[in-house]
Amino acid sequence: MRVAISGTHGIGKTTLAEALCAHLPGHVMVDEPYYLLEEQGYEFSFPPSSEDYRAMLACSVRSMRSPSTSSAVFDRTPLDYLAYLAAGGADPSEQADASTLRLAFATLDLLIIAVITPESERILPAAELPGLRSRMNDALLELVYDDPLDAWKDTPVLELSGPFDNRLDATLDVLKPESAGPGSGTTEAGAGRPWPV
Fold it and tell me: Which of 7, 36, 97, 180: disulfide with 11, CB 3.0–4.6 Å?
C-alpha cells in the first residue's frame, strides 16, 4: 500500500508515519521533501519562501510518482505545500499543474489529514510560527474538501480529528480491508469521501 500524511508543522506526522511503518510489514517511510532537498544541498529561507514551497511541492510530486516506493508511507504530500502557499496569499490553482497532481495522488491508497485540535494543542510541544501553522491548517482543510484542481477527488481521505492517542489505531482500522490498488476507492474510507475519526 501507499499511504501519505498531510498536516501542518508540529502536528505529529512523522511520529505517525514511523508508527505506521512499524505496523505495516515491508513499508518504508519517505522523508518529507524539506529533508530530501536539504540533502541535495538546497538552502531554505526561514521561514520558507514561496520559491521554497514550490521546490518542495515539485519534490513531493516526484517522490509520490516514483515507482520504486510501492510500499510506502509518505511524510507530507503536495497538498501541504499548496496549503502553505495559500496561507501566504497565493492561489493554489495557479501553483501546480492539475494533471501532474492527479497522477501523483492516483498512486495513493489513502490520504491521511492530521489536523489541529484542542487536544493536540494541549499535548504537543509548542511549534514555531504558530500563526502560519494555524493558517496552513485551515488552508489544508479547505483544499482537501474543495479540491480546486480536481486532482485528489478519487483518493480515499481519512481526517484524524478525534482522540490523539487513537490516531494509529484509527488509521490501521481503515487500512485493514486493503484496497485492490491505488485509486480503486475500495478502502473503508471510500473514494474521495472524508472519513473523520
Answer: 7
| Sequence spans of domains, the chain | 2-175
pLDDT tens sequence for the chain (197 residues): 999 999 999 999 999 999 999 999 999 999 999 999 999 999 999 999 999 999 999 999 999 999 877 899 999 999 999 999 999 999 999 999 999 999 999 999 999 999 999 999 999 999 999 999 999 999 999 999 999 999 999 999 999 998 989 999 999 999 985 543 444 333 333 333 454 44
Task: Count other C-beta atoms under 10 Å from residue 174's C-beta.
Answer: 20
Phi, psi of 194 (to 5 degrees): -65, 140
